[in-house]
Amino acid sequence: YDKWYTKSFSYKNNSRQDADRSPVFLQFIDCCWQIMRQFPHAFQFTEDLLLIILDHLYSCLFGTFLYNSERERMVAEVKTKTISLWSLVLSNTSDFENPLYNPVTRHHVLFPLTSMRHLRLWDKYYCRWNPAMRPQEPVHIRFKELLHLKTQVEKRVEELRRELAARQTHDSPRVASPVV
């Protein structure tokens, strides 16, 4: 078992053949995306986080996915020689926040539909380099833009209300106080 496990899940060991590597992590991330697609309000993050994780799985720009175990990373002193992918993610959290997220859903059990007719090809990952299959703009990006516009409009409405109230106060006839 140990030999099979090491052989199948080896990502960054040059002594392993590509044919011996397993796409289990990619499949896991794809499953996360499938569930996110079915429950867009249940996740605090967007698919962009999943994409950046997969983009850097083999990039070697970060030490996060180097070697097969925490022990191997410690022996290789990865933490002192590289930075973590999470440092990039945590420095740009707003890029990965889901504006559709509803905190109430965090206590709910999700029951995704798993039949083939409910599963979709993740175009934004698998087809992003094919110009003929460019996916449309993600809903969460448009939603963020609309929330920003809503905030601007609400501020402008409040300014106009204050201005109107000031004019009404200034223009209203003043009644003189009776002198006693």
UniProtKB/TrEMBL annotation:
The keyword Lipid biosynthesis does not apply. PANTHER family: MYOTUBULARIN-RELATED, PHOSPHATIDYLINOSITOL-3,5-BISPHOSPHATE 3-PHOSPHATASE. Transmembrane segments: none annotated. Keywords: Coiled coil. InterPro entries: MTMR12-like_C, Myotubularin, Myotubularin-like_Pase_dom, Prot-tyrosine_phosphatase-like. One of its GO terms (biological process) is phosphatidylinositol dephosphorylation. The lineage of its organism: Eukaryota, Metazoa, Ecdysozoa, Arthropoda, Crustacea. This is Myotubularin phosphatase domain-containing protein. Residues 1-126 form the Myotubularin phosphatase domain. Residues 143-170 form a coiled coil. GO terms for molecular function: phosphatidylinositol-3,5-bisphosphate 3-phosphatase activity; phosphatidylinositol-3-phosphate phosphatase activity.
